[in-house]
Design brief:
By secondary structure, the protein is mainly alpha-helical. It contains ten helices and no strands.
Length: 231
Amino acid sequence: MLFNIMQYIRDGEYASLFIQMAALLFVVFCTLPVHEYAHARMAVKLGDDTPRLAGRLTLRPMAHIDPIGAIMIFLVGFGYAKPVPVNIHNLKNGRKSFALVAFAGPLANLIMALIFLLCRNAVGAVNALAGLPTAVYTVLYLFFDFAAGINISLAVFNLIPVPPLDGSRILTLILPNKYYYTLMKYERYIMIGMFVLLWTGILTYPLNLLSGLVSAAFEWLTGLPFRFIKG
């Protein structure tokens, strides 16, 4: 992500830079809260009132934003928000419910990515049929495209099965308690190691590869209605 920003500056593509920064800000202040709200809503629905009591059953950005996680989005395109507190003992079906709560956040990102891609394709279709002003078309198309890509990246990143990411919570379905709690003890150090791997680019390549595969599938899916329209 930082490389893209520097590339835009070097090439003098300030319009693209502005649009990508606007999409990043939108994701941090609008879609990250939706991600965390999805966790909170699912937990409350499944019997745990802890997120509501902690003030996390809300879409207010400042209730969810983690400064370091937000900065990571701008630097490497992957990041996180404050984890929603959940008491597994309050959930109706224990581990299964805990895994559903964990998956609700990435699922929200994937749904938003689909919506953004549909909006992007709709802008392209309107432009092809009626002709939009070039500036309007470029801003809308690139904004929706960037926003969709970032949401897909966030979903893929959060599904990595290491703490404190959502994927580690899903591990409760398959890992015995003693191994799971041992893993969680080293959460802080694992996160530092992950940040180093992202910063050096070692982890960025496989994450970008996975994100690209998801993007390709979503591109095909969201393009179907518009292919029928053209047909």
